């Protein structure tokens, strides 16, 4: 039978168009045309709906991937999933993580001694602007998540530790398109504010993951619950949106006994913005065993960390008042706080930290999702 062997290779980026690190990996044979599954990363820029840094990076990475695979840029999405999150305030280093998957032959009657990393990917059907932030987007993300789980060989949602999703947002042009056809859109606010289209897109995507994994029953979902009912959420969805997208892209990370990877993934949820123990629990979930703080030996096995940093709806943390909700730069500060929290535990700045929006269906109220990939011991 065939089993997966997954690798995750992290390359810092000097500019949004920097593909030198990827090319070095390709030259060394660590990335092959038949093994590249996804490119996931943080790009410098504003992180807003009009973030040209993210768009510039997307174009450069798509062109590099097209040359590498020997296909046209328009065909890249059929083979490689892109999930790029814009904005690197504070101590978040711009980087790209290449996810590779090799299929290896193993005897039919053997299985691994423990569960190791597997990955699956899928694209959704196109999402017109009138579906953004609504049930149309939720259902299409759910369907794509099911397809990505099947691609990973996963059947039990408990084995899924991270679902990364990139979906379309809204732009002035896409709003005009919808309205010219007699359709409405969820919001005319193009920001990631509380009533912004970007926040609606992210949260509909998260609820799509929750629906697919059984975290939220479909009967509880409707257009009206998006960014309204915070009791509905996913503990493993990390989503982002961009006006440059026309369909959703989903990457599922989980563990399976049939994997032959050297990596393992785990996840946890922080209870607030200063919960370093929640980050450490994600490392423990992935397989690091330590009391108190991880040692340098422990951290040498850490491959990558993915985290959300959503601003809570409350102006209090552990009973004390904070003024973040009144800050005009709260979107950037919220993301920077998450970057600092993760870096304080990992001792590195190449962490994928997405967020900045206020409240989200990505994790429970006040909490944020953290997933860690480590190299298995032995």
Report on the biggest sheet. 4 strands, mixed
The poorly predicted ranges are none
CATH level-four homologous superfamily name of the largest domain: Cyanuric acid hydrolase/Barbiturase, RU B
Question: What is the global morphology?
Answer: globular
Radius of gyration: 19 Å
Task: Kindly report the CATH topology of the largest domain.
Answer: 60s Ribosomal Protein L30, Chain: A
User: How are strands sequenced across the largest beta sheet?
Assistant: 1-4-2-3
Q: Could you tell me the strand content as a percent range?
A: 25-35%
| Count of the domains | 3
* Helix-strand makeup class: alpha+beta
Can you give a write-up of this model?
The protein has 378 residues and is of the alpha+beta class. It has three domains: 2-110, Cyanuric acid hydrolase/Barbiturase, RU A (60s Ribosomal Protein L30, Chain: A, 2-Layer Sandwich), CATH 3.30.1330.170; 118-253, Cyanuric acid hydrolase/Barbiturase, RU B (60s Ribosomal Protein L30, Chain: A, 2-Layer Sandwich); 263-375, Cyanuric acid hydrolase/Barbituras, RU C (60s Ribosomal Protein L30, Chain: A). 27% of the residues lie in helices and 29% in strands. The protein is built from eight helices and 14 strands. It has helices spanning 20-27, 52-69, 135-152, 172-180, 197-212, 276-286, 296-300, 330-346, and strands at 2-12, 36-43, 81-86, 95-105, 116-126, 160-168, 237-242, 247-256, 263-270, 302-311, 316-317, 320-321, 352-358, 368-375. The protein starts with a strand and ends with a strand.
